[in-house]
Amino acid sequence: MGNLTRRAFLKGSTLCLTALGGLKLGLHANPARAAWSGERFLVYVYLRGGIDGLNLVCPIAGPDRAPYEQRRPNIHLRTTGSTAALPLGSTNFGLNFAATGLHELYGQGKLAIVHGTGFPIGQITRSHFDAQDYMEHGTPGSSSIGSGWLARHLAGSGQVPDGAVIPAFSAGSSAPASLLGRRDAMVLDDPNSYHPNANNGTVDGVPRYKLSTLMTLRYLYQGSGDLDLAGTGAIETVELVDTLNIANYTPSPGANYPSSGVAATLGNQAKLIANIAKRGLGLQVATLDYGGWDTHENQGDGTQGDLNQNQYANRVAGLSQTLHALYTDLAGAGMAGRMVVVVHSEFGRRVRENANRGTDHGSANPMLVLGGRVRGGQLYGTFGGLQDGQLFQNEDVMTTTDFRQVLAEVAAGHLGSTELGTVFPGYAYPGPLGLLPGDPIFASSFD
After folding, report:
1. Computed over its alpha carbons, how large is the radius of gyration of the chain?
2. What does pTM read for this prediction?
3. Taking the mean position of all CA atoms in its chain, how far away is CA 407?
4. pLDDT tens by residue, 58-94
5. How far apart are CA 10 and CA 329, in angstroms?
6. What is the DSSP letter of 299?
7. CA neighbours within 13 Å on the CB side: how many for 143?
8. Contact in structure between 354 and 86 (CB atoms under 8 Å)
9. End-to-end CA distance of the chain, in Å?
10. Contact, 186 vs 168, CB < 8 A?
11. 144 vs 161: CA distance, rounded Å
12. Which label site among 193, 225, 373, 376 has the fewest CB atoms less than 10 Å from its CB?
C-alpha cells in the first residue's frame, strides 16, 4: 500500500461486513437459489473511452463496404495483405486483424457478436460520463436510481448462495458504478501489494509491521457506523487475501495472459478473476475495465501492421489475447460453461474519420458475448448500414438493439434472474436474442 493512511487503506475495499467466525464478505439475507445459478458467473468487461466498434467489426463485402472505405480513406481495415480483416465465416463482416484470439474463439463457436447495440434513440448521448452512468446504472437517460444494474441483480431473491465468500469481485482500484450499492463486493488490483508495506522482522511468521498495523486498525474501527464497517471490511479483506493465498496462482496450460505492453495490467486482472473463480468462493459477477479507447487522433492507419505504430490495433490485440487466455484458463479447469463474458463500451465512434486520422464520439457499437454456453460463431442483431440515409444524424452507426436486451438475456439465461423489472426498471424486455441455450427460467414470464 505504500505509505499507509486511513483514507488510502479504506480505498482498497468497498463498505462490507464480515460474517462472525468465518471468511465471508457481506450479509446475505435471501435464501439460496437452485445450485446451478450459484455455480455460474458473469465477467463484465467495460471498454472505457468509447471503442471504435466499426474498426473492430467492419464490413468486408456487400453494400456497406464502399461507403466504409469512402468515409474512412486512411483508417479503414483492408481486405488483403497482412492487415486484412479476419473474415467472420460466410458473413460480410470481419474482425480487426489484431484480434486473432477472438477470431479463434468465434471459429470455435464460443464468441457471439451483437450488431448495433446502444441506447434508445431518445436517450442517445455522446458524453462519456453520461453514457457510462446510464449504462452502468442500467437506466438510459437517468443515473438517479442510486444503484448499479449488477448490484440490483445480486439483490434479487436467492441470487447469492448462502455459502458465497466472494459473490462480487472487481479487479481494479475501485468498484464500477454497475456495482454501486453492493456492500459485499471485493475490490482488488494486485494481491501482492494489498497489505501494509515495510517490515522489521516477523512474529509467528507474520511481518511485524503488518501485524501491528492491523491490530491498530482493529482498535480504531470498533464501532457500528459506516466508517467503522468500512475499516473492518478492509481489514478482513487483507486477511482473506492472505488466508486464500490469492497471490499464488498458476493458470491452466495454454492460457497466455499478456504480461507486457498496454494490456499487461488487464492481463493480470483477468488472471486474478480466473484465480478467484476457480476457488469455489461463490463468485457471481466480476468486473474488469480496459480504458484508452478515446481515439480522436492517430487511431492507426489501416496498413499499419506494426502494433507499436498502431495504437488502436495494439489495444485490440491486448483485449483479444486477454479474453482468449481467460477462456482457455477456465476451459482448462472444466469451467468454461460456468462463465459468460460480456464486453461493452459506452458508445461507438463516428463513421467518418476526422482530419487527425482519428474518430469522434458516435452511437451504436457491437457487443461481444463469450463463454462455453454461448451460441457463438454467429452475428446477432441488425447492422444499421453505412449508406446515405442509414446513419443516425448522418454521422453514426444506427442503434438497432437496446444494450439492455443483451444484458437481460445473460442475467436471466445464465445467472437465473427472475426479476428483470428490478434489474432494468422501466424496460420492457422483448425476450432473448438466442445467445444462450434455453433454460427452465425462460418458461416463466418476466415482470
Report:
1. 22
2. 0.86
3. 12
4. 999 999 999 999 999 999 999 999 999 999 999 999 9
5. 32
6. -
7. 12
8. no
9. 45
10. yes
11. 29
12. 225
